[in-house]
Amino acid sequence: MISLALPVLLCAQGVHDVRVAASDSPASDKALADLVCTGHDDQETIQKAIDAVGTGGTVYLASGNYFIDSFHKAEKGPDYAIKTRRLETATKIRIQGTVRANGGVIDFDSPDLRGKTKVTGTNLVVTRECYDALPDEGSFAVIRGDDCGKEFWDVMAQELTVNDLTISLPDNQKNIICIDGYALGALNVDDLRLGTRIFNRSMSPDQSFRVGVDGCIGIRGLQGSNNGSETIFRSVYVIGLGIGFALSGEHLVCIQLGAIGNKYGYTFNGFTPEGGVWAHPITLINCCDEVSANYPFFGPNPYGQNVDLVNFNMEHYTTMFSQGGEYAREAVPGQWGGNIDYDIQDWEADSWNNPFPGNSPYRRFWAAGGSGSRFTSRNNVQKRSYSSEERRRIAPNAGQVIFDEDLGRPLYCLECGDYGCARITFASGAESPGEITLRVGNTIRRITVPEGLSGRDALLEHVYRQLMVGASCRLLKEDGALLVWNNMIGTISGKDVSVDAGKTRARLEAALVHQGAENRWVDFTGNPVE
Question: Is the C-alpha dihedral spanning 274, 280, 281, 282 positive or negative?
Fold first, then answer.
């Protein structure tokens, strides 16, 4: 009865800060807390604290695990575990943890999460039982703004700050948004870790991949104008989801964000606003995108919004193509503009970056087809001048100017080239152990086939598993084939593609399916230059 009456009592007394302890918080934190969670349905206790702070204040969450066992039905938008409280005037709520949890995300393999899983920091845990009970077609938010059931301007009156905590999900196949800013007028976050234990790194042939669904999101941004309120995302890591950061809104500044092992690390304007517009710019500073299945995606942009990515750093794993990924692309090529400077650590190690994969001048950022044409894009590792031979091998951006040392004059890039691709078809399995050698342009890989590997499908799976650790490839299981890409930009011919089954006596065929494309350069009189 005291617990149920506390929110009303605190509001009546004008108290704007409420302290909450978890069931496994230290005894000293429990002694200081206004509310102590039981370890079951802890979202209800946190919601009482949020309701108690009224129009503005802070909910302090002590170190420990807060277990989320159910979601409430919302009038509009995703169902929720915790939401802000829309009153008759503007609200400004802060949820303040201690530190994002040690180790990042909880170990859901533990036989008993409650009482046995210990972390350092504040950790909101969507339990496995809760997760499994959610329908696949629904949409859910761990923390979100109050949908109000009203107009956009009512949404705009809510501001939320979330600091120093972790949100842990058991998997990435449900449409769960860790923090949803769609029904907020401003959202500020700092020092968070959101997601799963799934990394999707192509480090081992035995690894299984579990790429998240699009609706499983770390942070979803705002609808549009934030009406002059600041919106800053700082020092947030999202791991193993469908989309790390679904960025949108205006005047958004992102500092040192990290997306690791997601389907998309970053998307921009990937959903339709109900009342706002997207016009003023978004800025990302020193943000990273590691091991994503796709490079960033830029959604529809009819208002011509710009994005600046300052010192954007990526890790290009071969996982990307094995999971059907694409380079950075726009939904409507040419709608977006801005400035992007980046570096790409290329894990498809080869002659230019052995023994450790370094930042590469040879990996493109934008997909083919005109995406990125209005951006000023630059690979920070590329030099400003090259010999003619070196210039032909790099992956420039459209509009880039490079001085050709052999020709003695500057050249302008009209269009970035593309990578060649071959199809390797498996007609039979291996009859004996040995080595299979694949060659697609500069990509040359030797795959050891062990004794006892029988059948076409088994050989196909084995070669794919070994190959995708160090080469861009894609499995076409129903066709009994692999797609393998050249790791150097530019055209290749049929003579540059081969497969040798060696002593395995497997029947394999190699055929060129995409010859790639050369970079297109002109001098400053407009004449083409090879």
Answer: negative
pLDDT (tens digit per residue) in 211-253: 999 999 999 999 876 666 678 999 999 999 999 999 998 889 9
Tracing tokens 């052999």 back to the chain, one arrives at: 406
C-alpha span between 120 and 65 (Å, rounded):
9
Q: Give tens-digit pLDDT for 144-201.
A: 998 776 677 777 888 999 999 999 999 999 999 999 999 888 999 999 999 998 888 7
Q: Is 13 helix (H, G, I), strand (E, B) or coil?
A: helix
Q: Report the distance separating Cα 472 and Cα 451, nearest Å.
A: 26
Tokens of 253: 């500044």
How many other C-beta atoms lie within 10 A of the C-beta of residue 354?
9
The CA R_g of the chain, rounded to the nearest whole Å, is 26
Element (DSSP H or E) covering residue 316 = strand 306-316
> How is residue 194 annotated by DSSP?
E
Query: CA 17, CA 54: separation in Å to the nearest integer?
Result: 9
The pTM for the full model equals: 0.93
| Cα–Cα–Cα angle for 3, 9, 14, rounded to 5 degrees | 135
Of 168, 167, 170, 173, nearest to 137 (Cα)?
Answer: 173
H/E stretch holding 60 reads: strand 56-61
What whole-number distance in Å separates Cα of residue 85 and Cα of residue 187?
Answer: 14
Which alpha helices (DSSP H) does 14-86 contain, by range? Answer: 27-32, 42-52
Taking the C-alpha atoms of residue 33 and residue 10, their distance in angstroms, rounded to an integer, is 13
CB 456 within 8 A of CB 481: no
Q: Tokens in use for 167?
A: 């949100």
With cut-offs at 50, 70 and 90, classify the pLDDT of residue 118.
low
Please give the structure tokens belonging to residue 327: 């380079």
- In this structure, which amino acid lies at residue 35? L
Res 465: pLDDT: 92
pLDDT in tens, 480-510: 999 999 988 999 999 999 999 999 999 999 9
